[in-house]
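Hi R.,

Here's the chain you asked about this morning:
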Amino acid sequence: MGKKTGKQTYQLTNPPAIISTGTVVGPFEGRGPLAEDFDEILTDIRNGQSSFEKAERSLLIKACRLALDHAGFPSTQVDLFLAGDLLNQIISASFSALDLGIPFLGLYGACSTAALGLGLGTLLLDGGFADTVLTATSSHHLAAERQYRYPTEYGGQRRPYQQWTVTGAGAALLSSTGEGPRITAVTFGKVIDLGSTDPLNMGAAMAPAAADTIIRFFQDTGWEPNSFDLILTGDLGQFGLELCRQELSEQGFDLGDNFMDCGLMIYDLQKQDVHAGGSGCACSAVVTYGHVYRRFLRKELNRVLLVATGSLHSPTTYQQGENIPTIAHAVRIEA
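And here is the predicted structure, written out as tokens:
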């Protein structure tokens, strides 16, 4: 039986399980409403390192080690490590792979990397090309600000629609055997560019990509939005989520209270000054591998559609006047 359904979706014959996860977040994220669902909360934004970039790397390694430890797996028993991040040439992931010693496939999907890793890992496992896959991603607020915008020492004024890059890392260990919520379908998104040019307004830029992938998933599978306990976008924030909801409604898909965004869940928008919400590779990773995963284990969730979103621009393309291309990947997770 063919596994491809429709144009962009793959439904799995032998869906792999997420047998363990690991999450580490920064001090600021540890003051948010999901604090109890993270494995480790740092007290030092640098985590004892000499730079923010090295700090991010240490977070990613720690999250991977936690996922392995929770499953009782040494790294030598893992077939492949799939990871990526936001920093130039995905240095956090590459240096982490050096430390872990697992055969490595580097990924770049910007903030969609969590779903990209889950999707690719799932296909490798379902196809019999691996028995265990570790997938992970990370971001650091101060490293990302320095690369994509301005060092925070510059003191630039933030705009109401800007989002706050999450400091954290999340890892998931996937296995063709074992217990845990299973990934039963994957929809890989297309690159979408509707002419957005403001690198500070990521939510608005990514909303069309999220809507496109969500619509494609429902068209390919025939499922309905009310089939899910939760439909979760990656980091659209307040403005992006509303734009996405409007676009879906115009296309005949009216999503209700089960439609939410990781960037709105990780922070308390009333008490934490993050403007439009959270963003960054770690945003969807730590919310999914922490809060959502634990809700699955507590049998509070049966079906979740994770749609992680990513902005594929770079400082170079923005400075050269290019538009901002975006993408979203979706994975269906079932108890």
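One quick note: The longest helix spans residues 52-71.

Cheers,
M.
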